Fold this sequence. Notes:
By secondary structure, this protein is of the alpha+beta class. Helix content is 33%, strand content 23%. The protein starts with a strand and ends with a helix. A hairpin with a 4-residue loop joins strand 6 (66-69) and strand 7. The longest helix has 29 residues, at 149-177. The protein is flat and about 65 Å long. The protein has one domain. The chain is built from eight helices and 13 strands.
Amino acid sequence: MANENEVNGQITGNVLFYSKPEPLALELHKGLGVKRMDGPFGFARAGHAVPLTVTEFSLAALTGPIIFVGEEKTPLAVMGLNPNENLFLREDGLFEAGVYIPAYIRRYPFVFANDPNAQQSILCIDRAAEFIVEGGDMAFFNEDGTATEYTQSCIEFCNNYEVERQRTLNFVDMLKQWDLFEIKTASHTPLNEDGTAGEPQVIAEFFGISDAKLNALPQPKLAELRDNGALMQIYAHMISLVGWDRLIALQMYKVATAAAEAA
């Protein structure tokens, strides 16, 4: 879920990474800013599955699986096999080289909240973010109370993210209308100590685009998908599913390394 709601000045809702969201306001946050950190992504350690916009599919497919979950078929970039464990994030708070970092992560600590009374979005910050401090390197407000260039650039980034989020909703709605989803599973067959194949283990169950349903579409609909750019993103999703093998390999390496260190 990408947005929160504001009720009587308080932010409600449950949004990944944001534990104490507050509307950005001069009277509350004057003098605050973001300090530079060598490893600023420590907060994303809990993000084993992170929301993704459709225009990110092609880049994210190079890192790991792109899946759809829930009744809304929300697209997620899978970054770990276990809750609260991002396999691509190093101990120093940096991502491994070559890993695509979703825009959902890059916009933190900013997020838009919906104000149902004013029918508009309000820019918020996660006050619990470790890099929001008094006298930060990148202040939120100028001495005259106006938003700094840094804050303005963050607002622009969040605005662009909302545009892409809406485009993603439209993309998913189209896939629903054309009945292209099916339930898929990711599984792993471990090896026994004697080298024989063990019992297959289901790692995840999710929604994905059916290759058979896609191929069964009439040519005019396929042409429409091609012309509006959706077909490229569909194929990116399909190709990304081979990334389960990468995650399994990373998890096995992590377990083996931990066991060796313990020994």
